[in-house]
Design a protein that fits this description.
Layout lengths: L1 H5 L1 H20 L6 H41 L8 H34 L3 H37 L6 H44 L12 H35 L11 H21 L10 H27 L10 H27 L4 H9 L4 H14 L2 H31 L2 H23 L4 H44 L9 H42 L1 H12 L9 H9 L6 H15 L1 H18 L1 H38 L6 H42 L3 H12 L4 E15 L5 E11 L2 E11 L1 H10 L8 E9 L6
Antiparallel strand pairs: 1-2, 1-4, 2-3
Helix pairs in contact: 2-5, 2-8, 3-4, 3-6, 3-7, 3-19, 4-5, 4-6, 4-7, 4-14, 4-15, 5-6, 5-7, 5-8, 5-14, 6-7, 6-16, 6-19, 6-20, 6-22, 7-8, 7-13, 7-14, 7-15, 7-19, 7-22, 8-9, 8-14, 9-10, 10-13, 10-15, 11-12, 11-21, 12-21, 12-22, 13-15, 14-15, 15-21, 15-22, 16-17, ...
Length: about 800
Amino acid sequence: MEIIVNYLPLFGVLGLLFVYVKNTWVTKQDKGNEKMTKIAKHIADGAMSFLKAEYKILLIFIIAVAILLYFKGENEAGSNGMVALSFIIGAICSALAGFIGMRAATKANVRTTQAARTSLEKALEVAFSGGSVMGMGVVGLGVLGLSGLFMIYQYMWPGAENIPMVLNVLSGFSLGASSIALFARVGGGIYTKAADVGADLVGKVEAGIPEDHPLNPATIADNVGDNVGDVAGMGADLFESYVGSIIGAMVLGAFIFTPNFSGLGAVYLPLVLAAVGIVMSIIGTFFVRVKEGGSPHKALNLGEFGSGALMIVASYFIINEMLPESIEGLPFGAMGVFYATLTGLVAGFCVGKATEYYTGTGTKPVLSIVKQSETGSATNIIAGLGVGMMSTMFPVLLIAIAIIVSHHFAGLYGIAIAAVGMLANTGIQLAVDAYGPISDNAGGIAQMADLPSEVRERTDKLDAVGNTTAAIGKGFAIASAALTALALFAAFMKTANVTSIDVSQPKIMAGLLVGGMIPFVFSALSMKAVGRAAMAMIEEVRRQFRDIPQLHAALEVMRKHDSDKTNFSEEELAIFDEADGYVEYEKCVEISTEASIREMVLPGLLALVVPVAVGFIGGAEMLGGLLAGVTTTGVVMAIFQSNAGGAWDNAKKMIEEQGKKGTEAHKAAVVGDTVGDPFKDTSGPSLNILLKLMSVVALVIAPSIALDIVEVADYSNEKAATEVVVKEISKEVKIEMTKNDDGTVKATVATTTTENGEVLTDVKIIEGTEEEVEDKLSSDRIEGTKVKVEKIIVEEIIKKKS
């Protein structure tokens, strides 16, 4: 185990080498014909233009925050200006993870389409390989960045006494990752949903043309959005969860002294689990194979669950090697930590399955939405909201059980290590998630390139599996967000010397209420941003349909034959073909890019500014209340919005599969899906990052607002002042006096005290002259040689010092 600890960064390098190999293999695959290549280039250029515009804005933000962090670190005890370097590297790694995933996805989409012309097996291999580039890139950069910086800082500040400062400086890495992740999630979500709403409402509902049709001006922006939202956004989200859970566990592990690894076994453990998780994820990718006619779902599950099973076995040996059987701070020793890790893995899986039930095609909740779509949009919306609200019950109960069980076995450290266990296989989990949008893009390219129907059938089969895996991935993201936020919250309380959060204190209750309000304001800002961007997109699509003659004429032909090209006459086919090249895709891409960059700023700043303001104005206890409130409502809101949106989406797809396109029920379902889009792809997923980012900000500023010894005592006394302790005390005193041969006196005093049923006997012997003995007895308030029995009822009230 010493070898793993000493060479932790090499595991990150291993993950990045796997990325290079897979990316090279994907690049060598056939891109298809000229039309397919042209469409794919439009998507890739749009995705890169978005990242370029986004990173320009974020560069200014990174520099400004890094300067503030430097001066903060240099001017406070328990930190250092190097926290700014950690922040910059964390931000770069997060941005780089998104860039790597985006490039791989935009390469793999058209190659998946071409592979689908050959076989389902080949298409799955290409799509999953593209996704695995993203997955392994995230874990490779996370382990390399964290372990590398940790070793550098340990070399700069050696000794166990400097570990708290080292970990505070290292937490800047998580802050950088969280900041970029939030902007990427919000910006990507606004981008993809603005394009999706424009493509659906104008293209499908108003113009009556199929989704992903080449004559729809928003279709390229829609496909770009799948990448910037579901690839780059999801990658940044899980990268931030991954490093946040590790750092939270490391901070809490610093309070547990182990006999080996220089007393830092509990600090190294989360890094070792993450490093070994990279190896298990790589092994899991080799299990993902499917034959023609086989089930891609089973193939992906085999890889994901096979990797998870291997990780459980590895965790058992790693934990028992690094931690002793019994240790102060861990009530059940090494096995308790293993049980906590296992709890995290099981909870993540169960939350994912619960999410799948409430959002999956053909399930009872989704069927209820399908049925109520028949009576219009209003009943569709009501049904979707009801499903989303009800879907919060089981995930919240599962997360609560995971918290209680992991805390029972390993305390606060157990909660943190449960989050690490849940995210140990992030590499393959994210590969499965990123596979979904790649398959979706592949289907869109097949549609736009007018490829044979069997190609679209294969890509649709892959896409359907992607929707299910995405639901499970979102379940993992939500559950891990809750546990990670709680771990970071606990780390903040330890660092800030906050012993408890007493909601009877007005200041803390105020913080709790403000925290509970933040997710609602944040969701409102992101959803209103989608609405404004979508309005601009709708107007642009309508303008092109109205003002471009060739496009207008082609649409008339499509409406006449209900988009069935087999019924076109030669003249009508010529009109349709003439419209090719006149659609102005770049205008829609530009609208989505500009809107998303502009609108992502305010929600992102909200998450950063509020905890800083509350912490410095209201103090550490009020900030603790704020974090408790935002975590509670944020988790529930995230589950509600993600599941409601997913249920609306699959209800629409079920109606389409039933051949009811164009019916009133279908129109109602499209409206529901349009409402659900920002729920599931913008505000819902972004809330996961909001919870963790606010906790990380609190952890970083904790040394600046930490309670000192006097404040901790005052806080404890103030809490105790609200409690009245009633004690019943019986005291019986017996005194026996005898004279010694030399004339002195010997007094034997036996005091028996009974306090609330507990008996304590004290014997004291006093010798001297008679006067000396009597004076001593008098000073002890014991009268003469009589036996005195007293019944005393005492009310002790501890008052705060004035």
